[in-house]
Amino acid sequence: MKVGIVLGSVRDGRAGEAVANWVAKGAAGREATYELIDLKAFDVPLLTTNTHPMRAKKSYDDERVQAWSDAIDACDAYIFVTPEYNHGVPGALKNAVDSLGQEWVGKTAALVGYGSVGGVRAIENWRLVLANFSMTVTRAELNLNSFFDWADGLFAPLERRTQELTDLLDALEKAAG
């Protein structure tokens, strides 16, 4: 099983990069293969195509969207590392998810949110969005709080987060397997 760890922030100085790397490190050595997929590396343009992504049959006119499609389609499951912006999902990641169709259908996802309240509202938004693709989303989630899981601007997760990550990975692998 191949699991994509989708780093969903494209901002300069993003906190999510440290989170995604921590998730990848925690997933190392497990039965499933985990791969970091950094949305920023794909430069996915705004969704303006006339062709509905669900009808595109995984074939896109824009090479950036095609590269994004190929990376996502190669995975059996995903961990979305998502910030919470203004009580919701980050626009760049939402656009990137919306830019694809069949690549997501029927697959499994887990959610790692971060922000001042642990990304809980973004995670709840994602549950609704991903349901549209008939995706299974694990109940287990990680809620990293910018007041408690960062120190002096550096990601320093609370001690209990290691077990929470293990529980999330276990739930994802069981649901996707």
Observed structural traits:
single chain, 177 residues, 5 helices, globular
Name the shape in a single word: globular
Range of helix content: 25-40%
CATH fold descriptor: Rossmann fold
Order of helices and strands: EHEHEHEHEEEH
Poorly predicted ranges: none
Summarize the structure.
The chain has 177 residues and is α/β, with parallel strands linked by helices. The protein has helices at 16-27, 63-73, 91-98, 120-131, 161-176, and strands spanning 2-7, 33-38, 77-83, 108-115, 136-145, 150-151, 154-155.
Structural description of this entry:
With 177 residues, this protein is of the alpha/beta class. Helix content is 33%, strand content 23%. The chain is built from 5 helices and 7 strands. The protein has helices at residues 16-27, 63-73, 91-98, 120-131, 161-176, and strands at 2-7, 33-38, 77-83, 108-115, 136-145, 150-151, 154-155. The protein is globular. The N and C termini lie close together (8 Å). The relative contact order is 0.18. The mean pLDDT is 98.
